[in-house]
Each structure stands twice: as C-alpha cells, then as structure tokens.
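Lab notebook, design round three. We kept the backbone fixed and only want residue identities now. Task for the bench partner: fill in a sequence for the structure below.
Input structure tokens:
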C-alpha cells in the first residue's frame, strides 16, 4: 500500500473519511493515466489486482476502466474504506434498457462523515474528485455534471466537453468475477473500441487531453484543439508526455521513470509494435 501511495504522490496515509477519499481519488486520477496500451500491445490478462498494481508501480502506466478501478478498489480497501464495485454502462442513456452488456466498473465508497461517493478512475475524462452520490448538478472544476436516480440505479450525465453522454450503474454490489467476461470481451474482441484504437487520456480541472490514434485533442471551456501527429517521433513524444509528465504541483512524490524502465511494458515506446498502434489518423 505504501508503495502505491508514493506512486500517486502521497507521503502520509489518508484517513478513511470524506477528506481522505478526496485526497486519494484526486492523486490517483491525476497520476495514473487512462490508457489501453496493454490491449493494443496484446498484453491483457485477467483482472488480477496484484498484477495490475505491479503495472502501475512500474512507472507511468495505468489502464482502462476495469483495470484502473480494480487498482483503486484495492488501494481504498487497504486504507480501510468501505468500497463496493458496481456494474455500469457508458454510452447513451438507454443502453442498459436496450440490453447492452456491462462496459464499465464503478466504485461506490461509503464514508462515515459524508455518506456515499462515486469513485471512478476509469473514465479518462475525470472528474478528479469523487462525486457525492446524490441527485442534482455537481461541479467538477470547470465542468458540470448531473446525477439522477434511475429505477434500480443511477445515471451520471457527462459535461458538454466529454466524448460520451454519460454512464449508468446499478445499485447492486458486484464481485471482481462479475467483470472478467466483460473484460475479456473488451480487451480481445475485434469489435471492441479498445482493440480498434489506441487511447490515452489525462483529465485536469479545466481541460481533458486525449491521444486517440495519431490525433491529440484538448477540450474544455474555451479550448478545442486538434493536432495530427505526423510522424513516429511526434507520436512517441505525445505518448511520453501523457504517460510520464508529472502534473503541475505533483512535487517530489512523482516518480518519472526512464523510457524503457519498469515492470512489463512500462516502457511501451521500446515495444516493436509502437508504430503500428498509432493506427490511422483520428478525426
């Protein structure tokens, strides 16, 4: 646990209350990138908390929703938080009603002083802070989301600068085993967007930076930037920046590895398939 806390820039063990949750969540989402490199490089395995923690500890790496939230769940539980997994659906609001399979893992954390929160390090677009699990609009930095009750679950409407309408999740707690088949599908099926396209994202309070295939996007209030990365050097530079550049104010707790160092593929720029995963230009 202490190594993982240091990896996200924390030197003290946070208390298992609302303030501690905000501290852990913000540090984790700020420093563990949302990325599907393991899928793109053919390195995905089952959802194994120990293996995924080792990947994150190796330096610079994260994962997509099932992976990042598996690590966050393990960390929060080790810190003494009461945390539950919930099955979710990212996409149009009616996707669950239409029978779309689970494609997201959401965490609900119960705090003794401020009730339940949504904790989610697996959206790529933030928010940096956990969201109170209560109906109504909620401010997240420069962005505004909305949380609504929906039958036996909850709907979280994404802000106007996001790339998806929102996500829905169930009231019913789930086990890690409930997500294994969905993870296998999303990490191996030719129909999966994670298999089709590289994505790396970092959220901030006022913008979202996204590398999708070979296009770099910046979105937020007053920001709409698109830059095509013309060659492998530009692509590798953007990837390096998103994976290993410390967030502003990260301080000395941020460990930036040398390219190629770390566990497994924490040095993906040295991978023989690095050129091919850039794929076609994204629009």
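Proposed sequence:
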């Amino acid at each position: 646990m202490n190594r993982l806390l240091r990896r996200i820039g924390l030197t003290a063990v946070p208390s298992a209350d609302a303030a501690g949750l905000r501290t852990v969540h913000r540090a984790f989402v700020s420093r563990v990138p949302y990325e599907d490199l393991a899928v793109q490089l053919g390195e995905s395995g089952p959802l194994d908390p120990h293996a995924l923690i080792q990947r994150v500890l190796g330096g610079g790496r994260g994962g997509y929703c099932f992976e990042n939230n598996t690590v966050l769940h393990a960390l929060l539980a080790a810190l003494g938080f009461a945390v539950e997994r919930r099955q979710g659906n990212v996409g149009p609001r009616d996707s669950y009603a239409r029978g779309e399979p689970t494609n997201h893992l959401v965490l609900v954390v119960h705090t003794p002083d401020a009730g339940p929160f949504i904790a989610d390090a697996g959206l790529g677009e933030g928010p940096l802070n956990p969201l109170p699990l209560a109906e109504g609009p909620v401010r997240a930095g420069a962005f505004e989301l909305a949380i609504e009750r929906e039958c036996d679950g909850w709907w979280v409407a994404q802000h106007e600068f996001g790339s998806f309408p929102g996500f829905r999740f169930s009231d019913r707690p789930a086990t890690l085993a409930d997500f294994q088949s969905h993870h296998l599908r999303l990490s191996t099926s030719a129909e999966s967007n994670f298999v089709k396209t590289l994505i790396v994202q970092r959220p901030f309070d006022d913008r979202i930076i996204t590398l999708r295939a070979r296009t770099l996007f910046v979105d937020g209030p007053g920001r709409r930037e698109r830059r095509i990365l013309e060659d492998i050097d530009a692509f590798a530079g953007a990837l390096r920046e998103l994976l290993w550049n410390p967030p502003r104010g990260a301080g000395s707790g941020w460990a930036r590895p040398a390219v190629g160092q770390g566990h497994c593929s924490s040095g993906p720029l040295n991978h023989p398939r690095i050129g091919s995963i850039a794929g076609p230009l994204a629009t």
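Keep this in mind before ordering anything: The CA atoms of residues 49 and 281 lie 34 Å apart.
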